[in-house]
Write the structure tokens for this entry.
Amino acid sequence: MAERIEWLEDGTAGGSPYSPRFGDRYRSELGGLEQAKAVFLQGCGLPEAWAGQSQWCVLETGFGLGLNFLVTWAAWKADAQRPRLLHFVSTEAFPASAEDVLRSARSHPKLLPFAEQLQRQLWGLLPGFHRLSFENGQVLLTLCIGDAKAMLREHNFEADSVYLDGFSPLLNPDIWDVHTFKTVARCCRRGTRLATWTVARSVRDALAQCGFVVKKVPGIPPKRDNLQGEYQPAWEPKRKSTTEHRPTPARCIVIGAGLAGAAVAASLARRGWQVTVLDAASTPAEGASGLPAGVLAAHVSPDDSVLSRLSRSGIRVMLQQAESRLQTGTDWHPTGVLEHCIEHARKLPAAWQAGQALAVAAHDWTTLATAEQLKHCGLPPETPALWHVRAGWIKPASLVQAWLATPGVTWRGQSEARQLLHKADQWQVLDAAGQLLAQAELLVLAAGHGSAALATSAGVVNPLALQPIRGQASWGLHSPDTASAMPAFPVNGHGSLVPNVPLAQGMGWVIGSTFERDSRSRDIRPADEQHNFSKLQTLLPVAAQALASQFDHHQVQGWAGVRCATPSRLPSLGPLENVPNVWVSSGMGSRGLSFAALCAELLAARLHGEPLPVEQRLADALLPQYAKHHANVLKT
Ligand SMILES: Cc1cc2nc3c(=O)[nH]c(=O)nc-3n(C[C@H](O)[C@H](O)[C@H](O)COP(=O)(O)OP(=O)(O)OC[C@H]3O[C@@H](n4cnc5c(N)ncnc54)[C@H](O)[C@@H]3O)c2cc1C
Ligand SMILES: C[S@@+](CC[C@H](N)C(=O)[O-])C[C@H]1O[C@@H](n2cnc3c(N)ncnc32)[C@H](O)[C@@H]1O
């Protein structure tokens, strides 16, 4: 259940939101807008303080109805001197519904267009971090669902401004106590400014104890005072500043023009990097990312494993990218996906069951499939199956092209990297003849399983644990008979079927895929085609029957590619150990569509000391050096 909010009559369009849980109003009697502007924005010296900065990061306790976020976003948008990137990180223990967030903004017509965009992304807010993206990725909201203390401990960035909000200290002392402020202080640099509306003695004392120098400032009548402060501890903070070591965007070479490399290029270019993407092939997406169409669906597990959580974070980021860059129906379609649980008896976490606290948020992601959905696929009602709501199919190559078209990205084909040399703080990439292909300050290896040899060439001591896994998919074109026998959405669980994809030759279908470890072969094999068909017979007998004559009459095409997997089944994302300025984004396994965009944002965030889109613990599980170590723990 979303948090219950009562709307009190106050003469405004939406009414004044009130929390029965805390017995307090969400906004002051001044109305939220004035409070947000005068207390928080101006209290932190904004927008002047961010003028000319490359990025700015606001940290808030108590997201509530998002009014402070909306006001900050609107101020950013209206400011010619705005930073290239605005991060807003907010914690919220009791998330309100998307409808209530929109209703709260109704009293402020100028904020409504912003609130409508926010509302569309407020779904599936399970405990943990959620990265929401606006303004083509230039305004990033990290919503951390859970208690402020616990959520802030999962962060490792430096805020530039802090908004303290969280109902009255008398009614909700926890969010104003020294323990919460310690976790806030962990996210501050010397000079971080702070603002709030309460001047309660207990709050001032707790802030002072945590290293904040605070002062009362005049409020807008009837409020006498507000509080402003700065992080200026009398002691030397233990943590090293990340902001000081933030690289200035310069030149970067990405090796590999598949989903992983193209996504990294786009994320870095958005932050001001000039990125050259090199690939051995003559067109982009010639490797595993040349798959005609792939399935995007969350991984689920009864213990909501690291893989499951990361797959959801990745899908949220990927959906934002697909929505803003691809054409629905042509390049992708968020149809939902039915998972026929043949290979694994997939169980949803117990806390997601109907009637449980998390059910509403969880069911935005995955539910048990209904009898109608099963009937639609020609499956009996008792079939064990899940319905992935935020899911669908994507043509990976379309996305690769779209990412490579980002301003600041240059793509160069027929450029096979063989040797990497570090000279005078620059990385040089050489081809087989020893000719220089490119040089830059930063290098990213996104060459699928080829990344391992490149990392070794860069001087890494422990080779990257990346395994090639060959896979063959089969595809064909629809006749009117086959088209009518297809479900309206992809089905996975024992191989997969993407039933309706507009291909260059006409409307088609794609089924997959074989799985052959340690093979790099891209030959098309008739035996694999048969293998795919027999899997389809188990997965979806009705669809298989409709396609049988195409298999019998050799009207089926093959496509083969080589996946790249790690022992942990998680991607490999992070800087190479003991090698300066070389990062890797690879090991996407069978889930490149779920992971590529998230890994790219994670790489850019780690590089710049920005807030991470996922909890630190989850991000660390992807570090290349942990892949082997985590393998046994993470297998599900
Ligand atoms: C049959 C099959 C079915 C799949 N189905 C799905 C699915 O349904 N859903 C899903 O999410 N994922 C699926 N995947 C996985 C997905 O395709 C991959 O995870 C993803 O494409 C990996 O992207 P990448 O950029 O890491 O690698 P790639 O796309 O392989 O890109 C690596 C690039 O690096 C280049 N390269 C390598 N070495 C060098 C070098 N030395 N110099 C220059 N360039 C180099 C290659 O030419 C290549 O273009 C499937 C994969 C296969 C094979
Ligand atoms: C006054 S409202 C915040 C208003 C909000 N900043 C806005 O702009 O709309 C306070 C919020 O803090 C949340 N909250 C209370 N205690 C919390 C805690 N311990 N951790 C995280 N959030 C908390 C409440 O659920 C509520 O949504």
Observations:
- DSSP finds 19 helices and 32 strands in the chain.
- The mean pLDDT is 95.
